[in-house]
Amino acid sequence: MNTLRSMLGIAALATLVLTTGACTKTDPGGPDGGTDGGENCAPANRNDEIRLALAPACEGCHLTGNKPFFASLTAFENGLVYDEKYVKPGDPENSLLIQLLVGNAPGSYPQMPPGQRYEELVANGRVTLNIEQVKAWIRELPPAPERLEAPDPKAFTVRRLSAEEMVVSLMDQLGLTLEDFVSTSDPNWRNRAYVVNGGKLFIWPGDWAPGISGEYVSDSRSVERFEALGGGNSLAYRKRDVSFGPSAAQTVVQMSQAWCARAVDKKSNTAVLRYVTLADTSAKNPDAVQKNLRALYLRMLGQPPSDTEAKELYEQVYLPLEAQSTRLAWIGVCAALIRHPLWITY
Questions:
Q1: Residue 84 gets which letter from DSSP?
Q2: Closest Cα to residue 73, out of 142, 176, 12?
Q3: Hey, is 249 helix, strand or coil?
Q4: What CA–CA distances, in Å, run from 342 to 28, 75, 159, 203, 229?
Q5: What is the DSSP code string of 174-238?
Q6: What is the mean pLDDT of residues 322-329?
Q7: Do 58 and 108 fall into the same domain?
Q8: Long-range contacts from 152-155, C-beta under 8 angstroms, 24+ separation
Q9: What is the pTM of this model?
Q10: Is residue 264 exposed (0-12), middle (13-18) or buried (19+ Cβ within 10 Å)?
Q11: Which tens digit of pLDDT belongs to each residue from 241-266?
Q12: Residue 110 in contact with residue 161, Cβ under 8 Å?
């Protein structure tokens, strides 16, 4: 569906929202050696200066995940600076942060960042803040700012849907059930490992019971797709990925097309075709087509489309695909909505 490629650009914006949080410094001389360079965001205080200076070495692992110290100044101060597990005010030598940068910290990870010593990053210019400067900052660490006892209700937050949420909610939105993907020939099929019918592009967690069978008709990639979506697997000690990277985006594209096709083809399923049938075209029944498009937008994204959004979806997605078939047109509209940032995020 070449006409849907533009929707991937929208999904990329969602990725930026989910994975970009820290400001980083640029060369003070600018990329061309001039004098117009600087920072793409000014530090708020001394702690923020340190955060921005350490970011090139640390934000690769600590921008998202379970220790997102570099996602924001608040995360940096609350999670690292004023946690004496990592920083002991006035005592840099006994601060775990310094020990990690030097490479002599106790525990499983004696060095951060792993793979290359911090001093080497300073030497090659990737980081401009040396360890002695970090020590000086700890010796003169400013007092902790007043913290909120409860989350700020006015703060804007956004996260991507987890893999579990994507699978369960999309099945429900599209009117699909397990019976649409797995074999039901065994009367006790719900209580035994699922036998996945071929060509269904099923997605399922690897640690949910009863799991996927090892029979030859089963699709072993069901679990692989789930993990590509960012799903975890406690049996394999795999953590959930809270970012939205290329693997997740590619899996969403495949899932959206395959599952929307299954929903459109399913008999008596009104999840996608609520106000139209495949016999209705924009020429024969334009009002019904427009009504169904708006209803599907509301169902998938939880809010009605603006006139501009409805017009773009109709002209850029529905009409070009309707020239081939109404079936393909509604699959395309459905898949485009699943790739929309409002569906991917929460």
A1: T
A2: 142
A3: helix
A4: 38, 25, 11, 21, 17
A5: TT--GGGTB---STTGGGS-B-BPTTS-----TTSSS-B--STTS-THHHHHHHHTT--BGGGTB
A6: 97
A7: yes
A8: none
A9: 0.61
A10: buried
A11: 888 888 999 999 999 999 999 999 99
A12: no
Q: What is the pLDDT of residues 192-212, one digit of tens each?
A: 999 998 888 999 999 998 989
Residue 180 confidence (pLDDT) above 80: yes
Contact of 276 with 289, CB cutoff 8 Å? yes
Tell me: do 305 and 335 sit in the same domain.
yes
Do 205 and 250 sit in the same domain of this protein?
A: yes
Same domain, 133 and 22: yes
The residue behind tokens 């070495």 is 57
Please give the Cα distance from 115 to 132 (Å, whole number).
21
The answer to whether residue 144 sits within a structural domain is no
Rounded (10°) angle between helices 326-338 and 286-301: 30
Predicted pLDDT at 109: 79
In a domain, 344, yes or no: yes
Cβ atoms 255, 201 nearer than 8 A = yes
Does 166 share its domain with 210? Answer: yes
Distance CA 214, CA 225 (A): 16
Domain span including residue 244: 160-260
Token couple for 245: 């990277």
* Distance between CA atoms of residues 141 and 49, nearest Å: 12
Give the pair of three-digit tokens for residue 256.
């959206």
Token output for 219: 């699709």
| Buried residues in 203-241 as b, exposed as e (16+ CB within 10 A) | bbbbebeebbbeeeebbeebbebbbbbbbbbeeeeeebb
Biggest CA-to-CA distance, the chain: 78
User: Pick from 250, 217, 255, 244: which is nearest to 335 by CA?
Assistant: 255
Closest among 328, 300, 294 to 314, alpha carbons compared: 294
Written as six digits, the tokens of 244 are 């939205």
